[in-house]
Amino acid sequence: MHVHLVFVAKYRRQIFDLDAIEKLRSYFASVCADFDVELVEMDGECDHVHLLINYPPKTGNIKSGQ
């Protein structure tokens, strides 16, 4: 199952630069590996980041935002 996640900065403040996006990419890849899901694609702009993840049905719903 593919899931598209978008994380937006509060008040759409422009807080992400290229270095921050690369650090987030590394962090999200690590979290996905912990949950046995695949980070298919990740990109961002100065005020938000997009993630496309793929997880098998056996994983079930991922509890996010906790």
Automatic annotation (TrEMBL):
Domain Transposase IS200-like: 1-59
GO biological process, one term: DNA transposition
Lineage: superkingdom: Bacteria
A GO MF term: transposase activity
Pfam families xrefs: Y1_Tnp (PF01797)
Record-given protein name: Transposase and inactivated derivatives
Species in which this protein is naturally found: Klebsiella pneumoniae subsp. ozaenae
Lineage: Bacteria, Pseudomonadati, Pseudomonadota, Gammaproteobacteria, Enterobacterales
